[in-house]
Amino acid sequence: MGSMDAAVMALAGSSAIGFLLADGEQKRLGWVVAMRRCLLRLGDIIRYERCGISALLRTIELTGSAQERALTRLLHACAAEMERRDVPRLSFIYAEKSAKLAEYGVLSNADREAFEQVMSELGNNGLREQLRLIETADGRLLQREAALRKEGAARARLIRTLGVCCGAGMFLVLV
User: Fold this and answer.
1) Cystine design at 123: which of 20, 53, 69, 156 (Cβ 3.0–4.6 Å)?
2) In this structure, are residues 138 and 39 in contact, taking their beta carbons and an 8 Å threshold?
3) How far apart are CA 48 and CA 167, in angstroms?
4) Where are the alpha helices (DSSP H) in the chain?
5) Which H/E stretch holds residue 106?
6) Measured between alpha carbons, how far is 125 from 141 in angstroms, rounded to an integer?
7) Which of 16, 8, 1 is nearest to 173 (CA)?
8) What is the per-residue pLDDT across 118-139, written as a single tens digit (0 to 9) for each?
9) What is the pTM assigned to this prediction?
10) What's the domain range around 48?
């Protein structure tokens, strides 16, 4: 009976790993959506409130999803760090803070590229240039979002199926 218990545990464990990995695909999509919402909010703040960069970052309050809340905390931490430094370079501060955020690690370089470009250029140019940059980055993130919705669902299904099949194979071997 011990081998049956081990086989059932192998099946359940492998299936759970497959479902856990597939959940990462949804988190990637959530991050891209959060970055798009953040860019749209940044554009509105730049356009209408015209405040400094650290105040701009502190104004962001996205709470719709776990990724949006994490992005809000990240931007607030960047604002606090900018206020502490003599030479506040948002691009360096954002890179430091985001590298320490484990949840941010689910994103690929292509997922992060457009948003991080805005973070590196924010405050360096005039109002129109910043708004153009945000609009361009939003368009690129919209394309990433569409690709993740299309490919991510299929990839998540494949990962879940592989987890269950691997578990079933281990179940058969152990029984």
Assistant:
1) 53
2) yes
3) 55
4) 2-48, 53-59, 66-84, 90-100, 109-121, 127-174
5) none
6) 21
7) 8
8) 888 877 777 788 888 889 989 9
9) 0.71
10) 31-156
Number of domains the chain is built from: 1
Kindly state whether residue 58 falls inside one of the protein's structural domains: yes
- Per-residue pLDDT of 60-69, as tens digits, reads 888 888 889 9
Q: Distance between CA atoms of 170 and 148, rounded to whole angstroms?
A: 31
Check if the beta carbon of residue 111 is closer than 8 Å to that of residue 31: yes
Within-domain flag for 165? no
Q: Six-digit token pair at 91?
A: 């691009």
Identity (one letter) of the amino acid at 156?
Answer: A
Domain assignment present for residue 13? The answer is: no
What is the token pair recorded at 11? 């099946």
10 Å Cβ neighbour count for 105?
10
CA 136 – CA 132 distance, rounded (Å): 6
Tokens of 57: 């970052």
In a domain, 26, yes or no: no
Instruction: Give the tens place of pLDDT for each residue, 16-46.
Output: 666 656 566 677 788 888 989 998 898 888 8
Q: How far apart are CA 76 and CA 84, in angstroms?
A: 13
**Which residue from 24, 41, 28, 25 is spatially nearest to 138, judged by alpha carbons?**
41
Tokens encoding 50: 């015209």
- End-to-end distance of the chain based on CA atoms, in angstroms? 9
Give the single-character DSSP code of 124.
T
